[in-house]
Every structure is written in structure tokens, then in C-alpha cells.
Inverse folding.
């Protein structure tokens, strides 16, 4: 089967139009992916230098006394609360 | 070439059609339809943010025992404050302060009536959450206004501008929506870095006295052989306090015998700057609408007290979303920075005020 020049140009144009429409629709529908984050609570012993990072629990705030130190059994205090991005 | 002649006709017809479309602007109209479709689909996302934030607040109110929260929230979701007349600047700060305080009191009273049995802490979280919901609701209404206007007037320039700005607007909307979660669950946000720095300074120093004035904590302490007053909003609820007013009263109490004032706050970074960069400068680092900032400036200018500023840089999204680890680490570095500033700029036994500015959600004192 032999195509002449005009047919080839037509095919090229139609292909370009379809590609543009598909691209436009993709742009409309595609949403940028949000990174997944987890929130962590950093606990530090008020006496020694024991530090532990645990999962954030509702009610945690910086300055809260929470739990006992496994090393010297004095209290642990929340030192920081922060979000970490998870990498898939 | 008999079979290619019909192709020639199609070819020419297409060319003529394109030509007519361009001359009559039909292509523009098709483009506008595509844009409108795109904007509307994004607007639907903003609407879902607005509706869901409202639903979450109503849900939280009901759990705390509020009666008929739908009605009350519907009444307050369009709450607004009108800015004072600016062409007459005399006493504008006083007028602005009055309006801001009235607004604050109105929202506080609203929640006190709605939740007579809830604590100050829970109420403060809901106050901030309602503010977020008000912003989202307003954003939705403004975008809807412009797209309807553009469609009605066939104003493709308006639609095009909106289409170009939509990605940025969507980012802002998503940021506020995320902030809602932080406020409802009382997690520190990026803006809390100032409060965190203040908290850590209190923890590391030898505390002499503590008091709370106007939702603001004043802690007197010994730090590096200096007398240091640390000011921060009262936590761990969502609260920015009145650091300017409190600082200015404190300076007056000492008749200006203060050797150094340092303000620490989060600041918006420029594109290209790193999150968590610490910058040092002079002036009052505080991002309030005016009254608090000017109180700090006036008090320090009156007695010629050096006013130093330390800012931790971040973008708007980071400032409102739960605190990123990089920013938490920056706050830790800023604590040492403040201590160095105090030691380098004052002699022993000097009196210094350090104000940690920002929302103290999730940070005690
Ligand atoms: Zn320990």
C-alpha cells in the first residue's frame, strides 16, 4: 500500500491533534502526588541523656511529662513533635 | 490521481475551517471551555476542602456537647473584620487593635456560649480551626465568583488569568486544609518554631518565676549569668498571645532598664532559599497585622534598647502544616544562636528579653 505525500501529512496532523487532546486531558485529571508524612514525638529523660523517638499520640505536646526512662527510671519529657516524610 | 482528489478537498476544507476559526475567535472559545472545565474541576476540590473542614469542626463540636453546631457554624463561617480607614492615619494602630480585639472576643464568646463545659485548650483549638474553615470557605467563594463572572461576561482574559493562577491557589487551599488537621489535633506547626525556641530556652535556664498575662507567658530566668525574661504565647493550645503588649509593659515596668531585646519568629523564605535557614538581623520579627509589632518597636525605641531579630525561614505551606523535622532541627540550632547573641551583645548580669513569636499550638511553657 502506497501513501502519497498528502495522506502522510494528514495522518501526521491527525496524530498531533490526538496527542494534544490527550495531553490536555491528562493535565486536567492528573493530580500531583502528595508525600505521605508521619508525625513523631521525641522523648528525652529529664535526668540523663536518654532520647527516644516514638509515634505521635493525640494529646502529646512539647513539655508534657510522659512515661519513665528505662535507664534511670525518672520521667521522660516531650522535647519535640515533628512530621517526617515517608519515601516509597 | 483520482482517489487522492477527495483528500485534497478534505485538506482544503480543514484549512479553511481553521482559518475561519482563527478569524472569528472560535479557537479562543474552545480554549476557554477547556480552561473553564479545568478550573471547575479544581474548584470542586476546594469546595470539598471547605465542606470537609466545616464537617470536621461540627463533628468536633458535637463530640464536646455543643447544641445545634450546624446552625452556629453556618452563622460564623462568613465572619469578617473590616480594616480601619487608612487615609486618616492618626491613631490607626489603636483602631486596628480595637477591631482585632473585638473580633477575637467575638469568636471567643461564640465558643464559650457554644461549649460552656469545654476547657480553654479545646476551645482555642476550635477557634483556630474555625479560622481555617473561614479562609477555605472564602477562597471557594472568591474563585467561584471569578469563574461565574468570566463565563457570564465571556471574559477570556479573566478566565485565562484564573487558569494560570489555579495551581498556586490549589497549593494554598491544600495547605490550609492540612493546617486544619494540625490545629484540630494540637500538633506544632511551622509557625511554632518561635514558641519552641522560647520553650527550650526556659527548659535550659534556671527559672525564677512564671506568670501568665493576656494569654502570654512571661518566664523570668537566669541564663548564662544574665537575667532573662522569656516571652511566649500561653500553650499548649492554639494561641499567639499578645507578645508586643506584654513586652512593652515589661519594658515600662523596668523603666527601660533592659539591655537587649531579641525576637525569634518564622519568616517566609524566598524561592531558592533552604527550609530552616536561620538569619539574623535587627527589628521586630513578628508577623501580626500591626499592633503587636509597633508596640515592640515603640517600647525599644523609647528607651534606646537594641532590638535584634532571629528568623527561621520556611514557605507558607511549611508554616501552616505540622512542623517538619528540618524545621524542628532549625529551632534547636536557633536556641544556641540566641544564647550566643545574648552572650556576645551583653555583659554579665544584664537584663535581656527574648520573645518567641508565633502560634504555640502543641508547645507548653
Ligand atoms: Zn534517664
Amino acid at each position: 500500500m502506497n501513501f502519497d505525500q498528502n495522506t502522510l501529512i494528514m495522518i501526521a496532523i491527525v496524530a498531533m491533534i490526538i496527542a494534544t487532546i490527550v495531553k490536555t486531558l491528562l493535565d486536567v485529571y492528573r493530580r500531583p502526588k502528595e508525600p505521605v508524612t508521619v508525625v513523631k514525638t521525641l522523648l528525652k529523660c529529664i535526668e540523663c541523656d536518654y532520647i527516644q523517638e516514638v509515634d505521635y499520640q493525640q494529646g502529646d505536646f512539647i513539655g508534657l511529662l510522659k512515661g519513665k526512662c528505662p535507664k534511670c527510671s525518672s520521667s521522660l519529657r516531650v522535647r519535640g513533635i515533628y512530621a517526617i516524610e515517608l519515601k516509597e | 490521481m483520482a482517489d487522492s482528489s477527495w483528500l485534497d478537498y478534505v485538506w482544503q476544507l480543514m484549512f479553511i475551517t481553521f482559518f475561519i476559526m482563527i478569524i472569528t475567535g472560535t479557537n479562543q472559545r474552545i480554549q476557554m471551555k477547556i480552561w473553564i472545565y479545568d478550573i471547575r474541576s479544581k474548584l470542586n476540590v476546594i469546595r470539598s476542602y471547605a465542606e470537609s473542614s466545616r464537617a470536621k469542626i461540627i463533628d468536633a463540636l458535637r463530640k464536646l456537647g455543643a447544641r445545634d453546631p450546624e446552625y452556629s457554624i453556618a452563622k460564623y463561617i462568613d465572619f469578617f473584620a473590616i480594616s480601619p480607614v487608612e487615609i486618616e492615619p492618626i491613631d490607626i494602630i489603636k483602631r486596628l487593635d480595637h477591631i482585632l480585639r473585638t473580633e477575637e472576643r467575638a469568636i471567643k464568646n461564640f465558643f464559650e456560649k457554644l461549649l460552656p463545659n469545654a476547657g480553654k485548650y479545646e476551645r482555642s483549638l476550635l477557634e483556630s480551626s474555625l479560622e481555617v474553615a473561614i479562609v477555605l470557605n472564602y477562597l471557594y467563594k472568591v474563585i467561584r465568583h471569578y469563574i461565574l463572572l468570566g463565563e457570564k461576561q465571556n471574559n477570556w482574559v479573566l478566565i485565562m488569568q484564573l487558569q494560570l493562577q489555579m495551581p498556586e491557589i490549589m497549593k494554598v487551599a491544600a495547605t490550609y486544609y492540612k493546617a486544619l488537621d494540625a490545629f484540630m489535633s494540637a500538633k506544632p506547626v511551622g509557625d511554632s518554631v518561635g514558641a519552641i525556641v522560647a520553650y527550650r530556652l526556659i527548659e535550659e535556664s534556671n527559672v525564677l518565676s512564671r506568670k501568665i498575662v493576656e494569654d502570654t507567658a512571661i518566664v523570668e530566668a537566669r541564663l548564662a549569668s544574665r537575667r532573662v525574661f522569656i516571652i511566649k504565647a500561653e500553650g499548649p493550645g492554639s494561641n499567639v498571645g499578645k507578645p508586643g503588649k506584654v513586652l512593652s509593659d515589661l519594658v515600662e515596668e523596668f523603666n527601660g532598664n533592659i539591655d537587649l531585646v531579641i525576637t525569634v519568629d518564622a519568616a517566609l523564605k524566598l524561592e531558592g532559599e533552604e527550609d530552616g535557614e536561620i538569619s539574623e538581623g535587627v527589628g521586630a520579627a513578628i508577623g501580626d497585622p500591626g499592633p503587636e509589632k509597633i508596640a515592640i518597636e515603640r517600647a525599644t525605641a523609647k528607651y534606646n534598647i537594641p532590638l535584634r531579630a532571629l528568623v527561621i525561614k520556611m514557605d507558607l505551606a511549611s508554616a501552616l502544616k505540622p512542623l517538619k523535622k528540618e524545621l524542628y532541627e532549625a529551632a534547636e540550632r536557633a536556641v544556641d544562636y540566641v544564647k550566643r547573641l545574648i552572650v556576645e551583645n551583653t555583659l554579665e548580669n544584664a537584663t535581656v528579653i527574648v520573645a518567641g513569636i508565633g502560634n504555640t499550638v502543641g508547645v507548653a511553657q
In short: Chain B touches chain A at residues 1, 4, 7-8, 10-11, 14, 34, 37-38, 41, 174, 185-188, 196, 199, 203, 235-236, 321-325, 327-328, 332, 362-365 (CB under 8 Å). The mean pLDDT of chain B is 89. The first helix of chain B runs from residue 5 to 24.
